[in-house]
């Protein structure tokens, strides 16, 4: 049986920091814009996973080991993003995006970024 968190992720529903990919949150107003925040991780390639992925790519199909690694990396970048928002006094991130870059054949850089804000419900 597959663990849901192995192949997907995102901010937990009970988090004190709301993370959205939209530019606003319906029913809320932006009280203060704090500015850009990001969370970053760089992951090296695991030799065993790389060799297995090379064989699998010849045959076709999902590269599950690499998928799990990328999910873990994105989740770590998101956690670091949320830590930055908390440290700056925000309670939300608007326009969150991911950027993934190959880092000079050493690994993969994953950056989660967005705009830290303070929001409150519209009365």
UniProtKB/TrEMBL annotation:
Transmembrane regions: none
InterPro entries in the cross-refs: UPF0145_dom_sf, UPF0145_YbjQ-like
Name of the protein in question: UPF0145 protein E6W39_08520
Gene3D superfamilies: Hypothetical protein apc22750. Chain B
Family designation: Belongs to the UPF0145 family.
């Amino acid at each position: 049986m597959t663990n849901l968190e192995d192949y997907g992720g995102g901010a937990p529903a009970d988090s004190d920091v709301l993370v959205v990919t939209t530019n606003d949150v319906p029913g809320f107003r932006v009280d203060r814009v704090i500015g850009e925040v990001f969370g970053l991780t760089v992951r090296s390639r695991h030799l065993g996973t790389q060799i297995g992925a090379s064989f699998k790519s010849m045959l076709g199909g999902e590269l599950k080991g690499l998928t799990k690694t990328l999910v873990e990396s994105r989740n770590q970048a998101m956690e670091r993003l949320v830590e930055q928002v908390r440290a700056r006094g925000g309670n939300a991130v608007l326009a969150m995006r991911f950027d993934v870059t190959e880092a000079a054949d050493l690994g993969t850089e994953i950056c989660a970024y967005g705009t830290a804000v303070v929001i409150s419900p519209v009365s």
